[in-house]
Amino acid sequence: MTKPELQFIIHGEVPDSFWQELEQQLEECYRRLPTSDLEVVQVRVLDTVERLRRLLAAEHAELGIAGPLGEEFLALHDAWRGGPRITVCRERLTEVPPLVGLGAIRQQVAHSILHGSPEYYTFKFSRSLVEKGRERGLAPVALQQLLYYVAIAVKDYEVVRLLVSHGYDDCQAALAFHQLETSDEDRLAWRLARLNPVAHLICLASQLKLMLSIRPLVAKSAIAPALIQQARAMLSFLPLDEQDKLWALTRQIVAALGDDTHQNMATALQLTLEIL
Predict the structure, then answer these.
(1) Residue closest to 105 by CA, chosen among 17, 161, 43, 40
(2) Using a CB cutoff of 8 Å and minimum separation of 24, what contacts does 94-101 make?
(3) Whether 129 and 212 share a structural domain
(4) Do strands 75-78 and 40-46 pair parallel, antiparallel, or not at all (unpaired)?
(5) Cα 266 to Cα 248: distance, rounded to the nearest angstrom
(6) Predicted confidence (pLDDT) per residue in 125-160, tens digit
(7) In whole angstroms, what is the distance from residue 249 CA to residue 211 CA?
(8) Last residue of a domain, which of 74, 98, 120?
(9) Among 65, 97, 100, 175, which is most exposed with the fewest C-beta within 10 angstroms?
(10) The whole model's pTM is what?
């Protein structure tokens, strides 16, 4: 298969050995995955988390991007400048085992193939979704926030589905086990949100990113029990009935998803509004 041209931009003191190894990892993944008409991918490589944070904050301000910066992720993909772009921070990757980092890098490759244009970062609400949001008490800003969590979950699911279907099980399992951890922020968010219906809904939806992304791996019988156990442990700060609703929702979403990302987001959002 043909692979796209990789255009590297280095920020800070990044050793040649680091970005050259990264280049090899990216090229191997692009050779294995179906790249269709993908021609050029920009790759930004930064030395420190602080430099990454400053870069992302400046660009969000310049482009008017309202979402979170995303500096907590091991690697990033976006298409805000018109084409696919992968961002990797050396300091961030050195914090995790190599296979976990490789799993994150390969996810960005899959994002660039599946979601590598600006259209995948916009969404037009249907009248029925807006009405369903109103029924649940969601003002436009809250509905937009709910969409954010649903959209990133759907796109991550599509990415892991593609990678697992092309034999990248090991790195995706390593990344999943690394990510399936309860954070203090999750516990605090639930304590603050549980008595407010809108905040309650959004808080539960924030767990969909990991819950959906493990679904292609759960289909692999060898690791399914351990993954499910880890995911249940991650959700242990929630009451059992809320955990069960999340599991039921992810099952129904996966059963309904096809190959059209925008339709998948609409379907997942509709189901989220109905079930959670």
Answers:
(1) 43
(2) 96/178, 97/174, 97/178, 99/170, 99/171, 99/174, 99/175, 100/74, 100/171, 100/174, 100/175, 100/178, 101/74, 101/75
(3) yes
(4) unpaired
(5) 18
(6) 999 999 999 999 999 999 999 999 999 999 999 999
(7) 10
(8) 120
(9) 97
(10) 0.96
Average pLDDT value for the chain: 95
The parent domain of residue 163 ranges over 123-275
Q: Total domain count for the chain?
A: 2
DSSP codes of every residue in the chain: ---PEEEEEEESS--HHHHHHHHHHHHHHHHHS--TT--EEEEEEES-HHHHHHHHHHHHHHHT--S---TTSSEEEE-TTSS-EEEEEHHHHTTS-HHHHHHHHHHHHHHHHHS-SGGGG-----HHHHHHHHHTT--HHHHHHHHHHHHHHHHHHHHHHHHHHTT-HHHHHHHHHHH----HHHHHHHHHHTTSHHHHHHHHHTTHHHHHHTHHHHTSTTTHHHHHHHHHHHTTTS-HHHHHHHHHHHHHHHHH--S-HHHHHHHHHHHHHHH-
Instruction: Convert the pLDDT of each residue in 162-207 to its tens digit.
Output: 999 999 999 999 999 999 998 899 999 999 999 999 999 999 999 9
Residues 97 and 170 in one domain: no
Residue 1: the pLDDT is 59
The type of residue at 190 is: W
Residues 141 and 248 in one domain: yes
Domain's final residue, options 120, 139, 158: 120
Residue 253 tokens read as 């979403």
Terminal alpha carbon distance of the chain: 42
What percentage of the chain reaches a pLDDT higher than 90? 92
